[in-house]
Structures are given as C-alpha cells and as structure tokens.
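Researcher: Structure prediction, please.
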Amino acid sequence: MKLSYSLRNKLIALVVVAMVPLLAMTIYLIIALKSYSDAYDDIVSNMTIANSYNLNFKEELDESIYKLVVGYVTFENIDEDDSLRSPYVLIDELRDDFEELAKFTTDTESRMWLRSLLRNLSTLRDRVGDIEQNLEKGNRYDQNIQMLDDNIYILTELIQDDIQYYIYYQTKSMEQLKNQLNDQVRSFVLLFGAIGCGIVIAVVCVTAYVLGSITSPMKKLSKATKKIAAGDFSTRVTVSTKDEIGTLADSVNEMSEHLEDMVDKIKEDERKMRYTELRLLQEQINPHFLYNTLDTIIWLIEGNSSDKAVDVVVHLSDFFRIVLSKGREIISIKEEEQHIRSYLEIQQVRYHDILEYEVQISEELYQYEILKMTLQPIVENALYHGIKTKRGGGSISISGRLEEDKIYLEVKDTGVGMSREVLHSIRGKIARPCNETDAGFGLANVNERIRMNFGSDYGMKIDSILGEGTRVQVVIPAQPIGVTSNE
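Model: Predicted structure follows.
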C-alpha cells in the first residue's frame, strides 16, 4: 500500500503546531531576560565599585596628605606605615577603576559625572605634586597647609560628590531598566495569551484528527486480532486509511490467511523434531565405548575369564536395552540407575585398578520419572576427565534425594577437579545450547533437555575444586511415572 499520509507526518504536524510557536516565544523570552540580566549585572557591578570609593577615598587621601604636610611621614616611607597609603596610589587606583567603568556606562548623566570625576582626579594629582615639590624645597608648612585647605580638601570633596552623583544616576538607570522590563513582561504576557489560545485551538483540532485516524483503525485491528488469537482464522479487518495502520491491517489479513497452514506445519515440524531428538540420543553413544567393551570381552575370553566376559555381555545388553527403551524418552529413575550400574560395571572391568564407585539412590525415588541418559554423560565425564587423569585413581558416587516437589541427583568424583577459570568456562558453555559448544557437549545436552522438558527452574549445577574433585547436581521435578506423556 502506498502511504499517502503516514503516521510520522501526522505526528510531525502535531508537534510543529504545538511546539514551534512555544519554542520561538521561549527563545525570545530567554534572550530578553539574558539581555536585561546582563545590563542589571553591569549596573550593580559599577555601583559596587563606585560605592567602595565613596565610603573611604576622601578619608584615606585627606589623612595621607595631612600627615605628609605635617611631617609625620614622607613620600619615600609612607608605604611603611600600615595605616597609610601613597596619595598617588590612591589616585591611580581610582582613575583605573573609573576609566574601566566608563567603558561600560551607557547613560548620558552617569558618563558626564565620570568625566567630571576624571578631570578632578587629574587636578588633584597636580596639586599633590605641588605639595611634594614644596616639601622637597624645604619647610613650607604654611603654604602646604593653605594648599591643603584650599585645594586638596575641596578636590576630594568634589570627587566624592562626583561619585555620589554617578551612583545616583546609575540607580535611576536601574529603575528605568526595571520599568522597561515590566513593560516587556506585560506585553509578552498579552502576546503569549493570544498565541496560546491559538495554539490550543490548533492543537485540539490536529490532535482530534490524528487520534481519530489512529484509534479507530486500531480498535478494529484489536477486535480482529482477538478473534484470530481465539482460533478464528477467517477474520478480516477493513481499514480505509492509507498509512502505516492500513499497511498493518493488510499484513494482519495476510497473516490470518496463512496462519492455519503455518500452525499445521509447526505441528509437523515438532513431530519431526521429536523423532530427530530420539535419533540424536541414540547417536550420542560413544562408539569408542562399544569398541573398547568388545575388546574387553575378547580379552576376558582369551584370558580364560569367560564368567567375567558373560557378565560384561549381560551388562552391555542391559545398557543398550535401556538406551533404546522402545523409543521412549522418559524412563523411571530405577531404570536410569540400572543403566548407570551397567555402564560402571563394564568400565570397572577395564579400570579396576583406578576406579571405585557406589550408587546410593533411595528406593523411594524409583517411582519417579527422568529423562533417559541424564546421568550417563555426567558419569562418563567424571571417569574420563576426572578419574583417568589423576594418578592413583579415584571414586565416583551417585546419590539422590527428594525434597518437597524436587529431586536432587548428584554425581561426585575424587578426580583432578578444575581451576576457577576452567570451571567458569565450563559453566558458560553448558548454559548455552549444545549445538553452540564443542567442549562439554554431553553435559550441555543433558542441561538443555532438562530445561526444554521441565522449565528454566531445573537443570544442572557444577562445582569443582582443583585437586579435590567435581560435584554435578541435577535438579528435576518429582513427577511419578506416567505423568509426562510419552508420545
């Protein structure tokens, strides 16, 4: 189906109608507030600097000049007095700061008073220079006192007035800025209200259209899929919209047409898979075990141990009888125990000098069922990878117990064991499907079959200590014989 107006385009239209105007107004508001904030911060900063001089400049300068005139200090050693500062340093600091303020001051009145202040500072510096010259020429105390009263004190008073007027007009600028901001906020509120009403109307209309074009077809699809889920594969759904939902409706119709055939095919595949699994179980018998057993029988006969040879043949017969089990995958725990005993009896003939074993499965477990060949791969793994590789041999013990509704079967060996790294690797491989791993295939097969038949709460757990041995625990549900179908 060709999409004439996709859901994506509908949602984009809804977002554009709702978000673009809001985004534009938000950006404008942020820019305006940032501009006013910067201007406000500049004025506050300027006022802070000016106010710091307004409080102490005149007092510090007057005191320093007076003590220079009366001879308390000289221009050369005035900096050695912690309570005094050089007049030139005070004047230069004030000039530098207010020249910097002049770069950022914008209103006319404040700039006028800044210019007046800078002129008075230049004059003040000249008068301080005159006093310094008089002091260098000799004791002109009366003349310096006269200059102090007629020039210095007056100039510092004028400079203080300039600073106060500058602060006053900066305060007025702050008030004007606040009024402008209030006017802008009122205008913005009115504009936002008008645009907001328009947005609400547009969003409601577009939302109603978009939701209607989505919910109505979705309800039809929901009803149709419920009928299909209930097994009514003749159900069809009619959707007129030419969007993704329309495409989905066509797909649902196609799915319902082929679903019945697919279900039949899946059932057939499951039956074939079951037969394949049965063949796989039979093919898992290690041919080397059969060859070695036959060699053992020949060796016993040639060694005039015909009775032992007969016993081995009997055990081998029992072994294969349980392996075949007339095609059954589920057998009793008693049969599984017989299977293990037959296997170990045969292997003990070959490895009598290194292998000991015991089977302690309570008879109360005999009435419960188990997957065929659950324990044999574990016992085989314990023998070939645990006992044979350890000097002096070892023992294998098989036990089982019933706890509540679960059966715990354990295979323990006193073989070489595994390091933590190897154990971690084996656990990871066994947790994966057996067709995805080479190492531990038999154990992985057992674990996977248990989980497939009984669920993820059951399976295999392996623990091992290097140099001490390995313990494999199998957990299966306690199901009496006949509970699980053997079809």
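Model: Residues 36 and 180 are 9 Å apart (CA to CA).
Researcher: Thanks, that helps.
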